[in-house]
Each structure stands twice: as C-alpha cells, then as structure tokens.
Amino acid sequence: MRKKLNNLIVPYVFILPFLIFFLVFMAYPIIFSFIMCFSRYANASFVFKGLDNFKFVLNDPLFWKAMKNTFIMLIIQVPVQTFLAVVLAVFLNGKKLKGRGLMRMIIFMPILLDSVSYSIIFSIFFNYENGVVNNFLRIFLPDGPQWMNVGWLAKAVLMIAITWRWTGYNTVIMLSGLQSISDDLYEAASIDGAGRVKQFFYVTLPGLKQVLIFAVILSVTGMLQLFTEPYLLTKGGPVNETLTIVQYLYEKGFESFDFGVASAGSYILVLIIAVLTWLQLKATKED
Predict the structure, then answer these.
(1) 81 and 18 share a domain?
(2) What is the pLDDT of residues 100-116, one digit of tens each?
(3) Residues 224, 269 contacting (CB under 8 angstroms)
C-alpha cells in the first residue's frame, strides 16, 4: 500500500518545481494582466472601467501609427529574410561545397549576439557624423544620408539589422528541411529532363513547404513583438515613424504608468498574432 502511494506521489514531487514556476511567473501575470484590461489601478486598488481601456487603444491615433509602422516593416522584411534564408540554405546544402561546416557556423553566428549589443553596433555603423556606412559613402557622395532623421531610412536601418541577425537562424531551419528531401526525387527529376531551376520549383520548394510555414510564422510573430531594435536604434523616431506596437505598449505601461491601457493593447496584439497565424495555416493548408 505504501509503495503504491509513493508511486502515486513521487511523479508530482518531481514536477512541483515546474508547477510553482509556471503559476508564479506565467499563470499569475496572465490572470493579473487580464484583470487590468478592464480596470484602472489607482490608490493601491482596482477600479472597474469595463471596456474603456480597449476603446482608448482603438481610438488612439498613435496606436494605429504604431500598427502601420509594424506592418510596413513586416511586409517588406519577412519575405526578404525568407528568400535569403532559402537561397543560403540551398547554397550551403551543396554536396561539393568545401568548408560547409565553417560557413554554416559563420552564417548562424549573428543570432548568438544579444539584441542590445548588436543594436548598439548598428547604431554606431549608421551614425551620421562618423559611422562606418557614411564614411564609406562619402567616398562617392559629398555627404552621407541622415539615417535616423528620415522616416523611411530609419525603417530601412531597422529592417537591415533584423535581417542580418535572423537570416542565419532561418537558414538553419531551411537547411534541416532540405536535408529531409530524398536525393531520389532530384535524380528522378533530372532523368525527366528537369534542370536546376525546375528542380528548385517542383522538388525543393514543395519539400520545404512545412518548414517554410514554420519559419514564416516565427518571423511574423517576431516582427509583431519587435521592441529592442527600435527602442535602442531609433527611439521610435523620427516623429514616431519607427514606433512599433510593443514600443507603444511599453510607453503606456512603464512611462505613462497606464497599465490598464497597456494590458488591453497587449491582448489586442495577442488576438492579431492568433488571427494572422490562423490565416497563414489556412492559406497553406492542402486540400
């Protein structure tokens, strides 16, 4: 009887640390933020406000400005990054390529840098007065562009930085998908007269479909949660031209201390991510 009781209790003892961690650091913040969505925290107590926080967010022009900025960068950056990742993965998957291991490591290395460090490095590179990029451009031009003072240029810097950091990560994902495609398919396509281009479109891309969906969903979700790069590189400027959704929520929560509005905005963001993920899965689902 005692042995049966021990067998029943022991598994729960082992998972207890995880349960405590989950309840304190995940479940509690989720529940607390959900309560704050409908409340305003004042004088050490919650005041019920109904849907006022959601109405404020949806009627705030700055929120829609941040939404527009985020989606502009997402629509441009994600396809470019995915394309580069596929091209690099096909190149690195070549059977006759020498030093493949070293090249894969070099391409993957940017992801090992933390967001703060590489954002500071890019801010130095694109500095107007003595940045590496402008110093090089001054060889051909009388003066370099003011990267951080022009809206579309600041967006371009952000997209370049994000693409540089995450392309290698996506390349490794694509590479794993390529290695799961049987060589027999390429041999059969070659016998049927298909060249390299046709093999890519009729063998490689269909074989990468599930991996591509996974990588794109990760990239879209990451762009919608973009914060560190615009916060450190552009401060959301110039004139809120690079303000992102998460940066907007940060300013509402930790600068204006309006945690109810920030919580409401975060749940709107969660809904947007869920809908976009569902649409991507629906659009790529086979009959």
Answers:
(1) no
(2) 778 888 888 888 888 88
(3) yes
